[in-house]
Design goal:
single chain, alpha/beta, TIM Barrel, 8-stranded parallel β-barrel
Length: 247
């Protein structure tokens, strides 16, 4: 890995508020900030170079939070990638139109592979990330509510062939649980594809960040550990830049 790991804080939005879910369950939503712009600003102050914003309402088909996302993009001086409910070229255009740097496409690519190829062709691979939400090695779809018939490695190869600029891999069982990252799955994925991988799910502390950095991923998305005070974002960003050994 030539460059140091990019630590990417997550801002998940539901009903206009910044929340975290446990294993993607909207019934287990915990509100951390009434205004998602507040943590976004805080993360940038702490050294974040990229924000990962998820529109949970759009992902679950309950409307969207475009106005909130637009405010975040306008107010911060770093790149913002957005996922959740990107199921059409028109939606991607809308997000790029408000200044989003990269869109994350998940479910729609399984339901409609041609849509993903068209998005890559129209916007360029670097502006499109393919999301793999994995549970027991199988890709989950529809806001993590349904199992697909594809293994996460098969799907990763499809995403790479489609020309996406990066793959975001989330371990659904671990997301929001503070139970540790799926290091084995991440390592296998990184060895299987050439496209850069961004890992997500289960991070508890700085030691987990360092361990994930050794798998060869390009980036690591962190949410609950920061919001719960288990991980100091500024410290994590500084440590991975200096390449400090695991504790």
């Amino acid at each position: 890995m030539g460059e140091s790991l990019i630590v990417i804080p997550a801002v998940d939005i539901m009903g206009g508020k910044c929340v975290r879910l446990v294993q993607g369950d909207p019934k287990k939503a915990k509100i951390y900030y009434d205004d998602p712009l507040e943590p976004a600003r805080l993360f940038v102050e702490q050294g974040a170079e990229l924000l990962h914003v998820v529109d949970l309402d759009a992902a679950l088909g309950f409307g969207d939070n475009l106005n909130v996302i637009a405010r975040i993009v306008d107010e911060v001086d770093v790149k913002v990638q957005v996922g959740g409910g990107v199921r059409s070229i028109e939606k991607a255009e809308l997000l790029f139109g408000i200044g989003v740097s990269r869109v994350v496409i998940g479910t729609a690519a399984i339901r409609n592979p041609e849509f993903l190829r068209e998005a890559v062709k129209r916007f360029g691979g670097k502006r499109i990330a393919g999301a793999i939400d994995s549970k027991d090695g199988v890709v989950m779809i529809e806001g993590w509510r349904l199992k697909s018939n594809m293994s996460y490695l098969e799907y990763a190869e499809f995403l790479e062939e489609s020309g996406v600029g990066s793959i975001i891999f989330t371990s659904v069982c671990r997301d929001g649980t503070l139970t540790g990252p799926a290091l084995d799955d991440i390592s296998v994925l990184v060895s299987r594809v050439k496209v850069p991988v961004i890992a997500s799910g289960g991070i508890r502390n700085l030691n987990d960040v360092i361990k994930v950095s050794r798998t060869g991923v390009e980036g690591l998305i962190v949410g609950t550990a920061i919001y719960e005070g288990k991980l100091n974002l500024k410290e994590a960003i500084e440590k991975v830049k200096t390449g400090i050994k695991a504790l």
